[in-house]
Amino acid sequence: MTLWNASEAAAATGGQATTDWQASGVSIDTRTLQPGDLFVALKAARDGHDFVAQALEKGASAALVTHVPDGVAADAPLLIVDDVQTALEALGRAARDRCKALVVGVTGSVGKTSTKEMLATILSDQGRTHASVASYNNHWGVPLTLARMPRDTEYAVIEIGMNHPGEIAPLARQARPHVALVTTVAAVHLEAFESVAGIAHEKAAIFDGLQAGGTAIVNADLDHTDILRTCAARHGAVIVDFGRTASDYRLIGVTQSPTDIHVTAEAMGQPFAFDVQSAGTHFAMNGLGALAACVALGVDLDAAIAGLAKWAPVTGRGVREVLTLPDNGQIELLDDSYNANPTSMAAALDVLAAAQGERRIAFLGDMKELGPKERAMHAGLADVPAMTQIDKVHCIGPLMRALHEALPEDKRGLWSETSAEMVQELPQLVRAGDAVLAKGSLSMALARIVDGLRKMGQVGALDA
């Protein structure tokens, strides 16, 4: 299937194609590039122009560049533009313009990737669905997702994130969603914001991109829900709320088992129930918001509930599994190693506290971008209610030293500067019968802990 040809891409970007080429995909990374992809030579940690020759050797159909790179023939298949990032954005806008898909945009301090995956799972049952890969939600991830969207897409799910003020609105205007969902607003990225209210204003900027008559899905239980509502109303959106205090999609109760949750709720006053294949009450709120968004897109609620039942978390975002040790003992592993902030950390500790292990062990890494109160926020984890049910906490990173010092002595495990150091101690820290959580910001590499635990045994499914 042809996604772009040379003339279409040149018209979209204002660039000059050196040859007549056709691309079946779009890539920014030679490590994952597939034959037929258009390689986009972005400048990030390294200049993508340095990898154009390699991309073409691996089968790229063409490369989006500002000049003919060294080692590349002048007659190579290229699309030459003034600026690669700007051209990628133009390509994304053109893909959005030519596609008649119903689009839902998702943002939030916590849960946006899981909610995006829930939406994609539900909507895939309804028609041809395109969604952001992994957490491609930033200034290059959103236009890349749009540029990859096939023209016959019927539903699209676009994740939109931010680290600093002013990032969400331009991305939302590129995506132009029919439905925009804010999962929650929490104390994340406080290095760049003076307050959580400032974060709420930034998250609310997703409504800047709403199509006329679009729907805003807002969490009713937040301290700053009014900010979301005000911004949505300013853009003329239909406002639908969800949560324990919501009037539209109200969460009534959550029953948790070791492997899943059963949720009771009301939609416009009518009772219904749904299941999520993951422990953790926070997934109930994500699921409820996803259902509300799908109904706003025209999906029948019962069909959406059936689709949601097929969703399961991805690696590093709440996956639970059993590790069988050489002596046939078992460890239950909760892999939530992809990211962390105070809200998601408390939610993960809740899941660990409810686990059935003989001991409940946590490996916690630094939470980044929390601003001047970061040490207090780390120390404050010692006081979350779930901590009373956790037997030992091992801390990783300079910020987590604050938690290590705040923990009562009987819960205080080891502290190390890095995950690599902690991995060496795993055989002495974990034993058969334990339930183990690994969680921290991505840069803290808690995935090393997860990998180390997996090497101790064989991975198996978690029985209900």
Summed up, what is this model?
By secondary structure, the protein is of the alpha/beta class. The chain has three domains: 4-83, Udp-n-acetylmuramoylalanyl-d-glutamate--2,6- Diaminopimelate Ligase, Chain: A, domain 1 (3-Layer(aba) Sandwich), CATH 3.40.1390; 99-308, 3-Layer(aba) Sandwich (UDP-N-acetylmuramoyl-L-alanine:D-glutamate ligase), CATH 3.40.1190.10; 319-460, Protein-Tyrosine Phosphatase, Chain A.
What secondary-structure arrangement, pairings included, does this model have?
Blueprint: E1 4-5, H1 6-13, E2 16-17, E3 22-23, E4 25-27, E5 37-40, H2 52-57, E6 62-65, E7 78-80, H3 84-98, E8 102-107, H4 112-124, E9 129-131, H5 141-147, E10 155-159, H6 168-175, E11 179-182, H7 196-204, E12 215-219, H8 225-234, E13 238-243, E14 249-256, E15 261-267, E16 270-276, H9 282-296, H10 301-308, E17 319-324, E18 330-336, H11 342-354, E19 359-365, H12 374-380, E20 392-396, H13 400-406, E21 412-416, H14 419-423, H15 426-429, E22 434-439, H16 447-456, E23 458-460
Parallel strand pairs: 4-5, 5-6, 6-7, 8-10, 8-11, 9-10, 11-12, 12-13, 13-14, 18-22, 19-20, 19-22, 20-21
Antiparallel strand pairs: 1-3, 2-7, 14-15, 15-16, 17-18, 17-23
Helix pairs in contact: 3-5, 4-9, 4-10, 7-8, 9-10, 12-13
